[in-house]
Design a protein that fits this description.
With 200 residues, the protein is α/β, with parallel strands linked by helices. It is built from 7 helices and 6 strands, in the order E-H-E-H-H-E-E-H-H-E-H-E-H.
């Protein structure tokens, strides 16, 4: 575990798991890194490290360099595993079905699921960028169970109304919307201005 910065007002946990969508978590870390008053805590699962290499050409160590504090999934005794440690929000980006299932049914066998469970029991924002398609009934039931426990289910669906011209823009928009949803409103994307010349 690396050391935190001092004099920080907000603590945000980012977890990267093995589903496709590692660019979302990486973009969140980049956005948060440049925000004053925010301390990022990062957990990368073993499968998440593989996906980072495959989809972003980035090693787990390079991703960890973007965070203030890093943990291994096996660090179940870490500070963020306790509700007594103040955290403002957690985002799992992307969230694999395995991780979703662990969170939905409180199977806290690693730090990602444990930290998520802590957020839920303490009433703190937990956002899951669940990345899977098509969805069968088991997936849907797991999402329902997590939502009933208080999690925000936010599949990374592109916002084409923003007229993105690159994959990077689509990733950025989704990352910003997710961060805004858990309270980092200063990173929200440009708001929709409405359609001009709509049908009468």
């Amino acid at each position: 575990m690396t050391g935190p910065h001092e004099d920080v007002t907000r603590k945000i946990i980012v977890a990267i798991t093995g589903a496709s969508g590692a660019p979302y978590g990486l973009r969140m870390l980049t956005l948060l890194r440049d925000q004053p008053g925010i301390e990022t805590h990062l957990i990368v699962s073993r499968a998440g490290a593989m996906t980072l290499r495959q989809e972003c050409g980035v090693s787990a160590r390079e991703a960890e360099a973007l965070a203030d504090v890093t943990y291994r999934p096996a660090d179940v005794g870490a500070t963020i595993a306790s509700g007594s440690f103040p955290v403002d929000a957690m985002l799992v980006a992307p969230c694999s079905i395995k991780t979703l299932s662990a969170i939905a049914w409180t199977y806290d066998d690693d730090l990602i699921s444990r930290a998520a469970d802590v957020c839920l029991k303490e009433g703190r924002p937990l956002l899951l960028l669940v990345r899977e398609t098509p969805l069968h009934l088991g997936h849907l039931r797991a999402m329902t169970a997590a939502a009933e426990a208080g999690a925000i289910i936010a599949p990374p669906v592109p916002a084409f109304y923003a007229q993105p011209v690159s994959i990077e823009e689509m990733v950025d928009h989704t990352a910003r919307r997710a961060l805004a949803r858990v309270g980092v409103s200063e990173l929200a994307p440009k708001p929709w201005q409405g359609e001009i010349g709509g049908r009468g």
